[in-house]
Amino acid sequence: MKSVNNSSVLIIYTGGTIGMVIDPESGAYRPFDIEHLISGIPELKQFDVRIETLSFDPPVDSADLKPEIWVRLADTLKTNYMHYSGFVILHGTDTMAYTASALSFMLKDFNKPVVLTGSQLPIQTLRTDGKENLITAIEIAAERQNGKAVVPEVCIYFQNKLYRGNRSTKINADYFNAFDSPNYPPLADAGITIRYRNELIRYPDYDKIPTVHTNLDSNIALIKIFPGMARRVVERIIETENLRALILETYGSGNAFTDEWFLNALKNANEKGLIILNITQCKGGAVAMDTYETGKKLEDAGAISGRDMTTEAAVTKLMYLLGSGLTVEEIKVFAQLSLSGELTM
Ligand code: ASP
C-alpha cells in the first residue's frame, strides 16, 4: 500500500516564477518570502506530512544559475538527507532541466525522491499552475511503499507528468506544459490518482551508501551546427585554450557537413585529447553515426556518440565526468554509458 503518512518533505526554494509576486510599482515579477506563500496554501494542511521549507537568500532567477548553485543544492540535500523522506526543489523553469540533470549525476545512490518543480505563473496569481505542481510534487516526494520511496530518482514534475530529470527539456515558454522528455516516457501521470509506471522507475542499490559528488569542470563548448557556419568561428571554438570537451549538436542521426577544414579541425583536436560528443538537434531519437556517410566521417574524426541524450544531460554529464579525475579514454567510455538512466543503451 502506498502512503504519505508520517513522511517528511523539505521544500527548497531556489527562485523562479513560482515564488514571485508582481511588484505594484514596476509591474515586473520579483521574488517573495516562500514560507509566507506556502503558509497561504490551506490544502497543504490536509497532508499527513511534515513539511519544512528552506529558501535561497537571495533567490536566483534560474537564467542566472551557475554550477556553484548545484553544488550548494547537493550539499543542502546531503546535510538534510537523514531528516526527510523526500525533497522538493522549487526552481525557475528556464534551467530546471539542467539542474535536474546535474543532480542526477552528482547524487549517487541517493535513494530518496528529489522532485523539481516550478510554474509558468506565480503561485499567488489566480490562474496559477504553481499550486497543483507544488501539491503533487510534495505528494510524490512523500510517497512510500514498504518503507521505501516510490520514486527514488531526481525528477521534474510539471503539468500532470513526472519526468526523469536527466531526460527532460523545456519545450514551451508560454503554455503550462513547459516540459517534455521525448526519449523516455513519463515516470508517472497525475490525474484523479497518481499512476506510477514502476517498470520505468530506476531503483538504486539500497546496500550502497549515498554519496555526493561536487567537483564539476565546465571547460566545455557546445556547437549547434547549421548550414553555412563560418569556418573562422568554428575553428576558434575548437581551438579554445583549456577546452576539454566539445558537444556537437548535429542533424538527424548524428550528421554534419563534411568540409575538410571542419573534419581536420576535429581530428587534430581529438588527437590532442579533446572529447567530442555527438548529440542530435532533434528532440526525439538518437545518434547513430554509421547510418550516413556524413555521420561516419564525424566518427572517423574522433567523435563519440551521445546516443539519445538531451543537451542538458550531455552538458552536465561531461561537467561531472571531467571533474571526476578520470583519463580522457575513461571519460569517453563513461560518456557513452548510462550512468543515471540518461541514455538508452
Ligand atoms: N526566468 C524564470 C526562471 O527560470 C522563469 C521561470 O521561473 O519560469 O527563473
Largest sheet: 8 strands, mixed
Average pLDDT metric = 94
The name of the CATH architecture of the largest domain is: 3-Layer(aba) Sandwich
| CATH domain topology of the largest domain | Rossmann fold
- CATH class designation of the largest domain: Alpha Beta
List the ions, cofactors and other small molecules found in this model.
aspartic acid
Radius of gyration: 21 Å
- Strand tally is 21
- β-strand amount: 15-25%
Helical region count?
9
Tell me the overall shape: globular
Low-confidence stretches: none
Task: Sketch the topology as an H/E string, one letter per element.
Answer: EEEEHEHEHEEHEEEEEEEEEEHEHEHEHH
| Total number of domains | 2
Helix proportion of residues, in percent?
25-40%
For CATH, the homologous superfamily of the largest domain is named as L-asparaginase, N-terminal domain
Structural class, judged by helices and strands? alpha/beta
Distance between the termini: 33 Å
Query: Going across the major beta sheet, what is the strand order?
Result: 5-2-6-8-11-12-15-16
Walkthrough of the structure:
The chain folds into two domains: 206 residues, L-asparaginase, N-terminal domain (Rossmann fold), CATH 3.40.50.1170; 116 residues, Rossmann fold (3-Layer(aba) Sandwich). It contains nine helices and 21 strands. Strand 11 and strand 12 form a beta hairpin. The structure holds aspartic acid. Aspartic acid binds next to loops.
